[in-house]
Design a protein that fits this description.
Blueprint lengths: L11 E2 L2 E2 L1 H12 L5 H4 L5 H10 L3 H9 L4 H11 L5 H12 L8 H10 L11 H8 L9
């Protein structure tokens, strides 16, 4: 489902995948523009993973986003109130997230979502990030 204003999970802020997408979801939800299908996973799933990675609480991030500011300012706030990962930790995070669904315990979920979405023939979609892009109208082949 294409949601205007919702970035790809491949987008980065401060070199970190997924963070801008989480901020978009928070902003869209606050504005009443986030579809119900997306609301059930607010603060859990990949949102939960990124806040755990940064050692911050999701409700605190929501409150900070509602105060306004750029993505970079909010990330800096997370670093100050949680932790600032090293470049190596960010690299490991990015590679883990980018490959989620490819030969791991999330592969079954990815395959189910592909079937449910009518995308069983899209063998180029091998990760959850790629599926999200496909489902939202972005062609994962454009990234390669």
């Amino acid at each position: 489902m294409n949601v205007p204003g919702l970035r790809s999970p491949h987008e980065k802020v401060g070199g970190i995948f997924y963070f801008p997408r989480m901020l978009d979801k928070i902003r869209l939800h606050a504005a009443g523009k986030l579809p119900a299908d997306f609301q059930k996973n607010l603060g859990i799933g990949f949102d939960g993973r990124i806040v755990n990675f940064l050692w911050v609480e999701y409700p605190a991030v929501v409150a900070r986003v509602k105060q306004g500011g750029s993505d970079e300012e909010i990330l800096e706030w997370c670093f100050q109130h949680g932790r600032k990962p090293s470049d190596e930790e960010i690299e490991i995070w990015n590679e883990f997230m980018r490959k989620r669904g490819w030969n791991d315990e999330a592969t079954e979920i990815l395959q189910r979502r592909l079937r449910e979405g009518g995308f069983e023939n899209r063998t180029d979609v091998q990760t959850i990030f790629d599926y999200i892009d496909l489902d939202e109208g972005r062609d994962p082949r454009d990234r390669k």
